[in-house]
Write a structure and sequence with these properties.
Layout: E1 3-7, E2 13-17, H1 22-31, E3 38-42, H2 48-60, E4 63-67, E5 70-74, E6 82-83, H3 85-88, H4 98-105, E7 107-111, H5 124-132, E8 136-140, E9 143-147, E10 155-157, H6 163-173, E11 179-183, H7 189-200, E12 204-206, E13 212-216, E14 224-227, H8 232-244, E15 248-252, H9 260-269, E16 272-276, E17 279-283, E18 295-297, H10 308-315, E19 321-326, H11 334-341, E20 345-349, E21 352-356, E22 365-367, H12 371-383, E23 387-391, H13 394-397, H14 403-408, E24 413-417
Parallel strand pairs: 2-15, 3-14, 6-7, 10-11, 18-19, 22-23
Antiparallel strand pairs: 1-23, 1-24, 3-5, 4-5, 7-9, 8-9, 11-13, 12-13, 15-17, 16-17, 19-21, 20-21
Helix pairs in contact: 1-2, 1-7, 4-6, 5-6, 6-7, 8-10, 8-12, 10-12, 11-12
Bound molecules: ligand EPZ.
């Protein structure tokens, strides 16, 4: 297993280009099987989860061609409606083929995704919503089995604003007979991006990005072209990398408006941040130490849970105490033990952590556990005194395109060693 080795303590300088959003590319790729015709998706990040989704579409029978950051998919015919366990267990987002398979072929057998390092990750709201659309849904031997002659539009209320749940239901409803209204829908930018792509292909979706999404079902969807929005979490990770190393970095090809809660928190901590249309300038070179701030993760437009680990790393080396409360997932603190091994002073109290900033962390061998915890450890290593080795970097490769290359481009002393 590969590891990433970092010699910490250097302020990052320069410009970094953000890739396409993994969490937009995944539902968009899954949605291509909703119709025939060719779909050309550009600005697709070259990350492991996208490759896994491509393999799943291939198993279902779609013709998938990857050319650099472009994916060309044709799904005129599907030869299987089964998403196998050995693939789904490697990527929970595989559940996103459930809605499209059911809507277009009237049946789907998708392995239950199971839990992961950040929590139990149920899909009950996905299934309850599909049942509201008239599907017969059962769980047998670890598989979700769903059947429906033709889905019928219906009102659906989501107990919590689930991101992939909203995406699955939006895709299923796009081919249902009649109107569906999803209430308490998730409002993430990735949902708006998916709706934009579906509407280009003939769907009739209104309200994406608000908590009420209305979908008028249509008979079929044609092909379409789409450029995936920039990855706000990747962008946020590089913004925090600049802050934690007291550097000056320009994060380009991003959407600052998707990162307001993070940028405001960093300004509160004392980071000088200015934005242009597709660029964020971070200047943390002022000699004064950054200050602790309190953070509470919330569904969009609140502070993103996917930036929590990166923020805990930063707040481990600022002046003063910070309280970070994780309200979205039940156990998303896998990074804390590893940061402690680097000297961080962090106390876990239920669903919140109390961080008392230290002058410096000390480099150490640490273990990655999930995608964003790994990113937090990389950031801590960039700021720490001495060498940090992050093991099990396959977690990172799921969601960050060429991260060590992009960080080297900002002056970091970082390399990947084949394990
Ligand atoms: C999406 O996961 C993202 N993944 C996650 O990003 C992100 O952390 C999460 O949204 C929250 O923003 C993708 O988009 C592929 P949820 P998702 O359904 O859709 C509960 C990353 O690092 N819930 O919005 O699985 C659930 O337990 C990943 O890129 C139910 O109870 O998250 C959680 O507490 C990690 N029942 C809350 O809702 C359900 O049926 C939010 O989960 C569904 C969800």
């Amino acid at each position: 297993m590969d590891k990433i080795v970092i010699a910490g303590g250097l302020p990052l300088q320069g410009e970094v280009l953000v890739s396409g959003a993994k969490n937009s590319a995944l539902p968009i790729l899954a949605s291509t099987i909703l119709g025939g015709g060719e779909c050309v998706i550009s600005n697709v990040p070259r990350v492991v989860d996208v490759v896994t989704m491509g393999k799943l579409l291939d198993i279902l029978g779609a013709d998938v061609q990857h050319e650099g950051n472009r994916a060309v998919i044709k799904a005129d015919v599907i030869r299987s409606t089964q998403a196998p366990y050995d693939l789904v267990k490697t990527m929970r987002a595989s559940v996103l083929v459930l809605g499209p398979l059911l809507a277009r072929w009237g049946e789907a057998v998708v392995s239950l995704p199971g839990g992961c390092a950040i929590g139990s990750r149920p899909v009950n709201l996905h299934l309850a919503g599909l049942a509201k659309l008239g599907a017969e849904v059962s769980i047998e031997h670890g598989y979700i089995r769903a059947k429906a002659k033709r889905l019928r539009g219906a009102p659906i209320y989501c107990d919590v604003p689930t991101v992939t749940g909203t995406e699955n239901l939006m895709m299923a409803a796009s081919l249902a007979q009649g109107t569906t209204v999803i209430e308490n829908a998730a409002k993430e930018p990735e949902i708006v991006d998916l709706a934009d792509f579906l509407n280009k292909r003939g769907a009739r979706i209104a309200g994406a990005g608000t908590d009420v999404v209305t979908i008028e079902g249509v008979r079929e969807l044609r092909g379409g072209d789409h450029e995936v929005i920039p990855d706000r979490i990747e962008a946020g990770t590089y913004v925090v990398a600049a802050a934690i190393t007291k550097g000056a970095v320009s994060v380009a090809r991003c959407r600052p408006e998707h990162l307001e809660p993070l940028l405001n928190k960093l300004r509160e901590a004392g980071v000088a941040i200015s934005v242009e249309k597709e660029r964020i300038h971070v200047d943390a070179t002022a000699p004064a130490r950054l200050k602790g701030v309190d953070v509470r993760t919330l569904p969009f437009p609140g502070f993103p849970t996917d930036m929590q680990a990166q923020m805990v790393a930063l707040l481990s080396v600022v002046e003063g105490t910070s309280i970070i409360t994780e309200t979205v997932f039940e156990s998303r603190f896998m990074h804390v033990e590893e940061l402690r091994r680097m000297g961080a002073d962090i106390r876990v109290e239920g669903n919140r952590v109390v961080v008392t900033g230290r002058e410096r962390l000390a480099g150490a061998p640490v273990m990655a556990s999930d995608l964003r915890a790994s990113a937090g450890l990389i950031l801590a290593g960039l700021a720490a005194e001495g060498t940090t080795e992050v093991l099990r970097v396959y977690h990172l490769d799921r969601g960050y395109e060429r991260i060590e290359e992009k960080l080297r481009g900002l002056g970091a002393v970082i390399e990947r060693r084949k394990g």
